[in-house]
Each structure stands twice: as structure tokens, then as C-alpha cells.
Amino acid sequence: MLTTVLAFGQATIMPAKPQAGPVVITGATIHVGNGKVINNGYIAFDKGKITAVGEGSAPNTTGATIVNASGKQVYPGFICPVTSLGLVEFESIRATDDETETGEMNPHVRSLIAFNTDSKVIPTVRSNGVLLAQPTPQGGTISGQSSVMMLDGWNWEDAAYKKDIAVHLTWPVVRNGRGRRGGFGTGAAGQESPAERAQKAIDAIVSLFAEAKAYAQAKPAITNARLGSMAGLFNGSKKLFITADGAKEIIQAVNFGKQMGVQVVIVGGKDSYLVTDVLKDNNVPVVIRETQALPDKDEDDVYLPYKLPHLLQQAGVLYGLTGTGFWRQRNLPFEAGQAVGYGLSKEQALSMITLNNAKILGIDKTTGTLETGKDANLFISAGDALDMVTLDVENAYIQGKSISLDNLHKQLYKRYSEKYSLK
Question: Which Pfam families does the record associate with it (predicted)?
Fold first, then answer.
């Protein structure tokens, strides 16, 4: 049965061809991505770049393809950071899971070369407006490096948007609890306590970074792949994404970045609202993991995950949003929309998954908003893109290329609609 399903959707969805000529979208409500909305607007792009954006009648572009989007919405392509999209196909089948490497310290591992452009999951995600993603390795203390990928291409070389932008680190946590099953407690005589184990892990991280910093400064003739892969952290070409949820761990992570002279991004940050002064003073952004979740602690406000973006917005902390896993990234716009009911405006929620994520990933000079000179990464929706009831992506473009919005789910729906004579 699995073979039949895969064969049915195998070769019908192909990467888009380069933009052949200028395109002008007219009559649309254009959500720029920076809070600005243009009513009855136009947007023109050619050779993959946006050439004009404005209100009213579009400029005369000879030979352009005109797309009438009257009554529809135009948005910047959504950007999904810190995801396993493209690295996992079936969670239960090891051969299709390439997100984890053996070992604790793997800064040299590159998720880029494992990115699967033939994934059947990717088309289901981009059909909801997610056009760029940051496939990220998992596991260990330092899991590896990530890149920003376009969700269209023949291979990873085609799909690469910005290579090796970050190194990913999970900050050690002291877990308090009792009992043998969880492996917690205070530790038996002669055994390490949870606090001692966490400190030992932190010491190992500090030692590795000190060694890598010295290596980057010395530039030795003998190449060390592990240490060499971290050099970008010290010259500013890479950021250090640190997964940390607790207030204590977030402060430790921020101080560590300051000590090492690297740019830090907090991933998760469930308690980030408690330490906004530290984050703001050190210019450290937060990538929130989903809003549609339960709070981390029993004593927390049950609506805290929904409110977190608004709390960071009020505090002046740069924040972005990601989802969980890989296939669930198609819900990214709805996760953002959830925050609208808890303090954010619609345009702030949109910025959270467009401009804010672009800033955090260091790609805001080329994407994240619909402005002249930026890449034409955008889509047209018949309705509100942050509302799961009205989102209906009709056209999507990555660097001006008109991408296919077909996917395996749509094909299966059509197949069984025919079988049961559904209209």
C-alpha cells in the first residue's frame, strides 16, 4: 500500500523553471511584511527581483504577464526556522530520517547536504505559503550547522538560499525530580548529581569554544574540520542558535555568548518573558517554538504560549516563530494567527514569520518583505493567510519562479473524490 501511494505522487510535481519574463500582480491587498498594508496595490517582478510595489494602477511593463488579484491578498513567503523539514520523510522509518548524527559535539555536520528536495512533505508545506526553511540537525550537545533552503529545486545545490549560517547548541539543563526511571534525584553516593552532570557538560562546551576561538585566530596549516567549522561564529558570519527554555538557562546562554564574542539566538525560550531585560540589553532574539501548546509548568498561565509573542513584542525583543518537527510546519501561519487573539495585531503576527524570521536568519536584505530590490518570494491567497479557514494559496513564487502548488494530499483527495463521486 505504501509503495502504491508513493508511486501515485512520485513524478508529477517538478521544480519550477527560472522566471521567463516580467510579471505584474494587480488589484491586490499587499501585506508588505513590515506592518504596512497597500490596498488596491500592484507588485511587479522580473528576473527574480521585485521591481515595483505601489498603490493604484501598475506601471506599463511591455510583455509582462498580468495576474489579476482583485479581492485577493499578496504576502511575502513565510519563513520557517529551526525545522527538520527535508531531513525526515517518515519518522518511523530510519532510512528516511537523516536529522541526527552520532556523538555529542558535531559542529562540522552540515544539514545542507542531507536536504531532500524530493520529499513529498515539502509540497504540502509550501502549499500553505511556507517558501523558505532552515533545516536543522538534531541530537547531541552541538548538533551541527544549518542553512536556509528554498522549498523548490532539483537538488540541495539548487535549493540553497544561504549556506551554513548557524551552529546549533542545546544548553545543558539541571532536571530536578525523584525516582530511578527518570534518572534524576540527587545521585547516590559516589555518583554525579544532575547539577554536576550539567556543569560538566557546560565545561566541555566552554573548552571546545575556547579551543575553536584559538584555532580561528591562529589559522594553523593543519586543518581541523570540527574547529574550522566554528570559525564563522567568531568573525560574525555565523550565529549560535542555543536551545534553552528556562530563565536560568537562557541567562547562562546569553552570558556564554557574550563571553565568547558570538551572536546568540535563543530557540524555545519558554521563560524568555521573564528575562526580557537581559535579552534586549544583549540584542539576543528568540525563536519561539509553536504557540499551540500547553504551558511548561503547572503554575503557569494556561494561555502563556499564546501570549508569549505579545509579551516579547511589548518588551522590544526581536522574536520569530517556528513549529514542531517537519510536516507540522504547514501550520506555521495558523500558529502565528493564534497569537492575534492574544495581543498581536495581524501585521505583527505576519512579521513574526516573515521579516522577523528573516532578520534572525540574516537574510532580511534579500527577503522577508515585499520591497523593491528584494527577491520575489511571495504568494497570492484568496483569503487571510493566517486563518486556516480562509487561507487558499493560488499562486506562489520563489525568486520569481512560479512554483507548483500540487501535492500528494491534493492528489489523493482528487483520486478518492473521483472514486466516491464527490463534488
Answer: Amidohydro_1
